[in-house]
Amino acid sequence: MIAVHALTKRYGSTLAVDHLSFEVSPGAVTGFLGPNGSGKSTTMRMIMGLDTPSSGTASVNGQAYAQLRWPLREVGALLDAKAFHPGRSAYDHLWGLALTNGIPRARIDEVLDMVGLTEVAQQRAGKYSLGMGQRLGIAAALLGDPGVLLFDEPINGLDPEGIRWARYLLRGLAAEGRTVLVSSHLISEMSLTAERLVVIGRGTLIAEMSVSEFTSQSAPDTVRVVTPMTESFVNALQEAGAESRVEPGGSIVATGLTATEIGTLAADRVLTLYELTPLQGSLEDAFMELTHDAVEFRTASPTRSNGKVPT
Amino acid sequence: MTVLPSLDHLPGRTGMRQVVRAEWFKLRSLRSTTWTLLATVLGSLAVTVLATNSVQHRHGVSMGFDPTNQSLTGLALGSLAIGVLGVLAITAEYSSGTIRSTLAATPRRPVLLGAKVIVIGIVSLVVGEVLTFACFAVGQGVLSGRAPTASLSDPGVLRALVLTGAYLALLGLFGLGLGVIIRHTAGAIATYVGIIFLIPIFLQPLSSSGNPARFAPEQMLANSVAAVVPQSGQVTAPLACLLMVAYCAVVLAAAMMLLKARDA
What we know:
The complex is a heterodimer.
Chain A: E1 2-11, E2 14-24, E3 29-33, H1 40-47, E4 55-60, H2 71-74, E5 75-78, H3 90-100, H4 106-115, H5 130-142, E6 148-152, H6 160-175, E7 179-184, H7 187-193, E8 196-201, E9 204-210, H8 211-218, E10 222-226, H9 230-239, E11 243-246, E12 252-255, H10 259-269, E13 275-279, H11 283-291
Chain B: H1 16-28, H2 31-53, H3 55-58, H4 67-71, H5 75-96, H6 98-105, H7 109-143, H8 157-182, H9 185-202, H10 217-225, H11 237-261
């Protein structure tokens, strides 16, 4: 159980996290979603007691992180791809952590096996690829067999096989009744892994809901219309208050009216209709819609004002 | 599947005992530790050989000649390497990102710094004592036959050697404190070198007005702590040790304050 209450982090005049409150319950993977720079990592660092909040509180199992008696036995976290010394082997890195929390040696072999690093466990971690480093971070998170887990962008650097493995792992951990919070800026990834979502933008809470609620709520009514009478149909839609655009194939994509309403409209105006398909708004669209006003770094036009394309 | 004992049945909490063991292991598991210590030993012994070997040609044998002090000249290099060992014990954690794993495992920061002080303190004490006695033995060996030599049973020699070793341990802790404050390896080492070696040079012009350079760490080591024959105008060995303890206390107290206050 993770609880964040009115959590605020200020860097000078910038509010990185602004009165953020949410809870993460056991038994489900909760996706922590937001554009880059929205305050996800800062929030996770405050939950872990690494950064001190300007105000507000974050607690794990009802206690501030620093109060936990055996922290690694209660909380495991992957916050950075590289949170180990390049000169130390994976085995030694894990043993150094295990010693602090009374974790037996046998557990190290076990977590190394779980993440698939057994064969390279004695090599210096500086030689690891980004994906292997990520797996070592996951092994460290699992070391104390904790009931609460935090993962900050865990699939960064993993290959497709690794991504699939990580999805199964996260869902498996939640299925065992653990609390799992996973941050990502990719809604498509979260839709495959998470059941619940906490969406933030510019440090404030935008939404806290299940993945299915998120898609159905945020996606506007979009319907594809195939008709031989394109021009009349577009005019009719416009009069009825819907926005429409004509696709390259000649079909119309209309937003703002349901399929039922468009069907009735076609009958009223005696317009021929070949196809009428409600489109489920893509998750990306829904996410973009939701965080539209909260994007920190918007992409600029690729051409510069002098007309030269940057090389 | 290893079944870890349930938390409800696990008494107490993680504390100094666990963290000291972990920090000791972390220090041992890095090759850079071995290299730093090897550099400390070889560098110090090499300078000692050079310094004692040059005696006959340079000094002749004067009344104030202090064979113990002469054989410990090499420790100037040793005190640099021991300081680096202290600095690296914490800055390597920051530069590699390990500090976040470390603080997740040991969120109570005073416990972490306390454990590092104990481990670095003991390691540099052992290294410092061994190094001091080794330099003494090698130095006396080189001196014998060409100049007067000292032996452990001579008055004041044993005390000077033991204090010198302990003083080196303090320099290790001084480096650790600077490392915590500055957090960057290069910056912390530069600051250490500046305080230990450069301040006395900058203070040289003031030598006629109270000679403040005599209170600088490296000056106190060379002229007071490692001296059997008292040198005029220098602080006494006990006072030098007390001052160095005070310097360490100030730096470590500032380090503790900053470590507790800053985001990792």
